[in-house]
């Protein structure tokens, strides 16, 4: 049977997204042309390929997630992966400071828990970030105790744990310079 011919047993897989179907079509474009594809199908494949090429790329700005609990850090990183920021996870303030020393100009958001592995806590990190990297949006979180307003730098935002994903996304949007995200 000729490649691409459909049998009665074949069906479209509903679990595939249009993007995945488009990628598959685009990857077979050269083979399809060689077999003599109707022009309207070829035009559709070119259109899908062009829309994929126009997909916006990440800005190059970073979101630094500083959390000693690996599972919580992974959730925050996965959430921030859906934004214009590229997340980098650290389990300690010392590791975060190393990233800031190397790439501080690229860091748009520092999202830090108060209790961290290492010698420094999140409040000490927040004070260092406020002083040395004031362009970074600073968000401090904790589920252990309320934070006195005077314990945080003036520009820091406090979000209690458990935080809501929308609160994190809002802070990421503000850090990326996008304003408030639209609620679903």
Automatic annotation (TrEMBL):
<dbReference type="Pfam" id="PF00072">
    <property type="entry name" value="Response_reg"/>
</dbReference>
<protein>
    <recommendedName>
        <fullName>Response regulatory domain-containing protein</fullName>
    </recommendedName>
</protein>
<feature type="domain" description="Response regulatory">
    <location>
        <begin position="62"/>
        <end position="176"/>
    </location>
</feature>
<keyword id="KW-0597">Phosphoprotein</keyword>
<dbReference type="InterPro" id="IPR011006">
    <property type="entry name" value="CheY-like_superfamily"/>
</dbReference>
<feature type="modified residue" description="4-aspartylphosphate">
    <location>
        <position position="113"/>
    </location>
</feature>
<dbReference type="InterPro" id="IPR001789">
    <property type="entry name" value="Sig_transdc_resp-reg_receiver"/>
</dbReference>
């Amino acid at each position: 049977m000729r490649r691409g011919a459909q049998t009665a047993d074949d069906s479209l897989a509903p679990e595939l997204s249009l993007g995945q179907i488009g990628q598959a079509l685009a990857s077979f474009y050269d083979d399809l042309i060689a077999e003599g594809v109707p022009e309207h199908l070829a035009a559709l494949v070119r259109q899908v390929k062009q829309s994929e090429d126009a997909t916006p790329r990440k800005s190059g700005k970073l979101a630094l997630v500083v959390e000693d609990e690996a599972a919580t850090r992974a959730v925050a990183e996965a959430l921030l992966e859906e934004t214009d920021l590229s997340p980098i996870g650290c389990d300690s303030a010392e590791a975060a400071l190393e990233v800031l020393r190397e790439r501080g100009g690229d860091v748009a958001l520092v999202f830090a828990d108060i209790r961290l592995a290492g010698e420094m806590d999140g409040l000490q990190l927040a004070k260092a970030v406020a002083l040395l990297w004031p362009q970074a949006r600073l968000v401090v979180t904790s589920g252990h105790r309320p934070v006195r307003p005077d314990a945080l730098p003036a520009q820091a935002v406090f979000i209690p744990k458990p935080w809501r994903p929308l609160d994190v996304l809002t802070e990421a949007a503000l850090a990326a310079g996008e304003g408030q995200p639209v609620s679903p």
